[in-house]
Specification:
CATH architecture: Sandwich
Strand content: over 45%
Helix content: under 10%
Number of strands: 7
CATH superfamily: F0F1 ATP synthase delta/epsilon subunit, N-terminal
Length: about 100
Amino acid sequence: MQVEIITPESNIYSGEAVSVRLPGLDGSFQILNGHAAIISALQGGSVKVELATAFEREESTSEMIQEDKSNDKLLHIDIKGGVAEMQNNKLIVLAE
C-alpha cells in the first residue's frame, strides 16, 4: 500500500509499506495492505511502519524518522496526534 505521513511543516515519509501500526484514541491499531476504508483520530505515540523493501536514508529524510537497528524494513515516527485516512489502498497520516 502507498503511505504518506505529513505534518503542516513537511512531508515526513512517502513510499510503499506492508503494514502500519497507529496510536488510535482507543488504543493502537494496525492497517494492512488492502484494508477497508477508514478514518481515525490519533493520539500521541509512535507510528510503526513496516516497509516492503529496506529503508535507505537520504539527505532529505526527515529527522522524525527513527530506524530500527535490528530490522532495516521497520521505521518509527513519534507524533503528538493527528488523523489517519485509508482509502483505495493509500494511507494518509496528517500528524502533529
